[in-house]
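Our consortium's second objective concerns turning raw sequence data into structural hypotheses that experimental partners can test. To show how far this objective has progressed, the report includes one record in full. It was chosen at random from the queue rather than selected for favorable results. The single chain below, 464 residues long, was entered without modification.
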Amino acid sequence: MILVPAEGGAESILGEFSGMTQGNLKVPPRHLGWTPDSRYLMIAGRESPEGPLRLFRVDSKDGTRVPVMEPQSGILGDSGPAVSPDGKTLAFHRFRAMGSGGIYTVGLDEAYLARGAVRTLVSGNFAASPVWLNNRELAFYGYRLGEMQIFRVPADGSSEAVPILGGLQGMELSYSIAQQRLAFKRNDVDDDIWRLPLQGDGVAAGPAAAWILSSRQEAVPEYSPDETLVAFISNRAGYPNVWICERNGSHPRQLTRLAGSITGPMSWSPDGKWITFASNAEGSGDVYVIAADGTAGPRRLTQDPPDDVRASWSKDGKWIYFGSNRTGRYEVWKIAPEGGQAVQVTTTGGSSPLESPDGRWLYYAGDDQYETVLWRRPAAGGATEKVVERLNLWYSVGRSGIYYFGRKRKEVRYWDAVTRQDRLLAEMPVGTGLGIAAAPDGRELAISLTNSRGGDILMIERFR
């Protein structure tokens, strides 16, 4: 953390803070806030790589840091600190699960340390970046109907949060009380699913072409075992939900109708009759199963407070793998499709589990869930080995190797399980998005690409 005078001058280093960003949390970038007297900074950081994000008071004169409050068990972290103009209350966002969080407040004493109980001000799928409009009211942004919208809410919780200007889209708020100006960022993102033809395992047969499209988000594609259907996530009808279409992209139909900020990715049962996925529609992430023809479900398999994410079916149909932080960090677990007691699979961190097509290997990513290492071990148990040193979250297990997104934004790469060689498969015309899937017949890849990504900083004058 570096401090520099606003009018210019020499920089001073206040210290280093671990965990200013954390892929598991999808934490917004605002991790600090000033106290009204400009003496202290409120900082979100971690005391250890495995620990949760928590809030510290940092002295701007000498960098001395003091925890604002004791950490709470069962959460992923606190961030977005904002001190009220009178210095008596701290607002912040607390993440209880990946992609799920709310706005909370706590009283402050004269030293700007927490006193009294923490109050839940806003709960739901996602709410973040609180800013004080005055001592009585806050603004924040939250997820609603597939968009990040700006809301305002009384600081005493006397009434519900209401959208600003009928549902203004925006995020990453900043407010000047003196000038009555609200600044915010608006993103332009359109993810679509493209198709990359293959002439053999790990060999592209031509350029990628657009395939499953809309003006909203299409992501995390997954082929059915008989190769006739494709499941994908879309928010074209509001919240992200599971959709299905024919392999040629025709006849799209909505399979689920959940009101969560995160749903997916999906995995088909080996017989093609069922689809499993995770969603935070009921709070923290849970694993669900639904009939592929929509006649049954969705049925919730896990109901524990911890976060259960990224479900996938075993090739023998006996288990559903998923990642969960029920031990304090993300590990791979498995549960029977009928439900029951979950069984822990890994003990050194893991998530995003996928079995190889022959059911011999279980692949999984490290527990960071963003830029991480890919591992594998025999599905029946045994020694673990490193496969890919660094991948950008998304991967698919093909017939003879791993397709994955590389560190560069447009890269699709291939790791050959026979030769153990890693190579560039193709460079996409636009940036990679959310999800990649190899067709069972090895003829193509389905890839989520971001057709447009940009942002503008907007400002509302005389906002109060």
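The partners drew two points from this record. Confidence is low (pLDDT under 50) at residues 20-27. The longest strand covers residues 181-200. Both points have been shared with the crystallography group to help prioritize constructs.
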